[in-house]
Amino acid sequence: MPRWLPAALLVVVLLATTGVAVVRAAPQVPCYFVFGDSLVDNGNNNDIASLARANYPPYGIDFAGGATGRFSNGLTTVDAISRLLGFDNYIPAYAGANSDQLLTGVNFASAAAGIRDETGQQLGQRISFGGQLQNYQQAVQQLVSILGDEDSAASHLSQCIFTVGMGSNDYLNNYFMPTIYSTSQQYTPEQYADALIQQYSQQLRVLYSNGARKVALMGVGQVGCSPNELAQHSPDGTTCVAEINGAIDLFNRKLVALVDQLNSLPGAHFTYINFYGIFEDILRAPGSNGITVTNRGCCGVGRNNGQVTCLPFQMPCANRNEYLFWDAFHPTEAANILVARRAYSARLRSDVHPVDLRTLAQL
């Protein structure tokens, strides 16, 4: 057997180990910045006083780095997106990043974070979207120092991709937790969606004013279909909770309108990624994607494996690629890769508004 491989074959062999088929070339954009919650947190909560942490096995059981703080068995959506964009390395957590890594982007996401500052407070410390923006503003000042002046930093940042996925916890760990939060008494679902969008709009304008131009807003997924909500509120353990999904649908519709508003800003390219619709499509015909179990966590305790989330050193299911959910709330790597592919290259017109990430990178 020869001791060498043709270069093209070597690339194929390398790609086969990643689970995401992309061509290894220069990244399509020079940098990628991530904002969000536990769906994309990759370690920012590891060293803070929070119950919302995933830096223990079996989290990361299928990830080369083990239990890094990712709330999945393997890749998150942004890990898969970073590979699709052509980055050799995953975008590092801001908490452990060095100044050189700021040039290619960092991940500011924090589990339990929301648009509203109080969201998730019952879980301890977390970095709300407002706090993530403060960290980003500090990073921008470092970039100005590294690149020499504000114009150079602005030019660099204008080419970066930014993904922002906020809102899930504002429902899961706020509005639909009436024993702790009063928002459901203060607001109707319509009023709450309006209040969230108003605050989100102001926050996203801060992001824009600090250099972000290519921004993808990830819609909130079908939280009412998560094993945790099915365990608590679904009579048959399969039917999604309509009250929760209906409230989230209101928010997402307003988020699409917000994208159109933000695109009136000079040089702005905002887009909406329809996580809700993509998730719905997967649930409609799960078998076509190799996913056969949609209402139970691969790792968890109780009804639907969703009443208590994955415990330290608990033995997860063996057939993880067949599960939509890894634990009570978060998707498996298999599901995350499916969603990332459609965010990057839309399969249906409804997947994005107005463009997918591949197109956004080219603008």
TrEMBL record:
<dbReference type="InterPro" id="IPR051238">
    <property type="entry name" value="GDSL_esterase/lipase"/>
</dbReference>
<dbReference type="InterPro" id="IPR035669">
    <property type="entry name" value="SGNH_plant_lipase-like"/>
</dbReference>
<keyword id="KW-0378">Hydrolase</keyword>
<comment type="similarity">
    <text>Belongs to the 'GDSL' lipolytic enzyme family.</text>
</comment>
<dbReference type="Pfam" id="PF00657">
    <property type="entry name" value="Lipase_GDSL"/>
</dbReference>
<keyword id="KW-0443">Lipid metabolism</keyword>
<keyword id="KW-0442">Lipid degradation</keyword>
<dbReference type="InterPro" id="IPR036514">
    <property type="entry name" value="SGNH_hydro_sf"/>
</dbReference>
<keyword id="KW-0964">Secreted</keyword>
<dbReference type="InterPro" id="IPR001087">
    <property type="entry name" value="GDSL"/>
</dbReference>
<dbReference type="GO" id="GO:0016788">
    <property type="term" value="F:hydrolase activity, acting on ester bonds"/>
</dbReference>
<keyword id="KW-0732">Signal</keyword>
<dbReference type="GO" id="GO:0016042">
    <property type="term" value="P:lipid catabolic process"/>
</dbReference>
<dbReference type="GO" id="GO:0005576">
    <property type="term" value="C:extracellular region"/>
</dbReference>
<protein>
    <recommendedName>
        <fullName>GDSL esterase/lipase</fullName>
    </recommendedName>
</protein>
<feature type="signal peptide">
    <location>
        <begin position="1"/>
        <end position="25"/>
    </location>
</feature>
